[in-house]
Amino acid sequence: MKNNLTNIDPCFTLDNLPCGALVTDAEHVILNVNAYFANELYWDINLLIGHKVEIILTKASKVFYQSYLMPMLLHEKNCEEIQLSIVNGNGKRIPITVNAKVDANKKIYWSFFTASNRNKLYDELIQAREKLELQTKELKELASIDELTGLLNRREIKSRSTFVLSQLTSDQHPISILMIDIDFFKSINDNYGHTEGDRVLKELGRVLMNCGRKRDLISRYGGEEFLILLPDTDLEQAVIFANRLHNSVSTILIDGKPLTISVGISLFDEEMSFEEAVNEADTALYKAKDLGRNRTEVFSLA
Fold first, then answer.
1. Confidence band of 2 (pLDDT split at 50, 70, 90)
2. In what residue span(s) does the GGDEF domain sit (predicted)?
3. CB-hemisphere CA count at 13 Å for 270?
4. Among 247, 245, 226, 249, which residue's Cα sits nearest to residue 237?
5. CATH superfamily, region 4-117
6. How far is residue 139 from each of residues 133, 164, 178, 222, 243, measured CA to CA in Å?
7. What is the pLDDT of residue 150?
8. CB 78 within 8 A of CB 100
9. Which residues are catalytic?
10. What does each C-alpha distance from 23 to 100, 112, 115, 136, 230 come to in angstroms?
11. Structural domain boundaries of the chain?
């Protein structure tokens, strides 16, 4: 059989390789390097041959080389795609990928591939991931926040309330629920237009946020209705809170006249569902409307 070695181009040398190549002995001393180190890495080859390979490594890579790479080479006899950083002849740090193999005479044959493009791609992938995470967060917020008022939407308060109610009722903490409705809101839209109606909704959302605490769940429940869940709040405290709302809401003016709201309050019981507590607050709200609006009523079975 014809030996394949006879097919090797006699003009081929290690200097033809598009990567750095060098040979070290068992003492880590550089025995030979190719022209890549001079042409691409700006090293004077005479300054490399006869010196230990650590001369081209950064401080961090020297530690990695001594503590991990060499022990692995001595045990496995080869390594592939190890990430290191070297310095070129101008002192610039360059990320590289290293492959190495040990022969029977304990000589080590190294190849160095610059990984600048790989690192650039990695950085781009990181940036793309961060962008996707930000977009996912924004989409999640859009799915949970009422766009007009910035409050929680109906779906989100129902979702969050499940955890809050189960947590607090198990510890026997009182929880009050307020259902709020803007008085004569249809007339505002009819007489002043939907732009004015939207302004009123936004202003009311701002007032509710200013009056509430961080742990309170405040939502636009639908149309001109707003729902607030007040943890650690009994009925007496909830009524005080509602009265403060009435005063704050009156600062919102429509054609010079103060805005008014009607409020219904219910106290959550551990045996009832979120929907049942909301229905009780809604019943109290309708009572407030029937009694003339601009007032607060507490749910009662009587």
1. very low
2. 173-301
3. 9
4. 245
5. PAS domain (3.30.450.20)
6. 10, 23, 28, 20, 36
7. 92
8. yes
9. 224
10. 9, 11, 20, 50, 73
11. 4-117, 144-298
| Side chain identity, residue 175 | I
pTM over 0.70? The answer is no
Can you tell me the distance from the alpha carbon of 283 to that of 251, in angstroms, rounded to the nearest whole number?
A: 27
| Cβ neighbours around 73 below 10 Å, total | 19
DSSP codes joined into one string, the chain: ---GGGGS-TT--GGGSSSEEEEE-TT-BEEEE-THHHHTT---HHHHTTSBGGGGB-HHHHHHIIIIIHHHHHHHSEEEEEEEEEE-TTS-EEEEEEEEEE-TTS-EEEEEEE-HHHHHHHHHHHHHHHHHHHHHHHHHHHHHB-TTT-SB-HHHHHHHHHHHHHHHHHTT--EEEEEEEETTHHHHHHHH-HHHHHHHHHHHHHHHHHHS-TTSEEEEEETTEEEEEEET--HHHHHHHHHHHHHHHTTSEETTEE--EEEEEEE--TTS-HHHHHHHHHHHHHHHHHTTSSSEEE----
pLDDT: which is higher, 205 or 84:
205
Question: Per residue in 241-252, is it b (16+ CB within 10 Å) or e — as a string?
Answer: bbeebbebbeeb
CATH architecture of the domain covering 144-298:
2-Layer Sandwich (3.30)
Beta bridge partners of 87: 93
CA–CA separation, 236 vs 3, rounded Å? Answer: 98
CA-based angle 200:236:220, to the nearest 5? Answer: 25
Residues 192/203, Cβ–Cβ less than 8 Å: no
Residue 135 is predicted with a pLDDT of: 73
Q: Mean pLDDT throughout 199-219?
A: 95
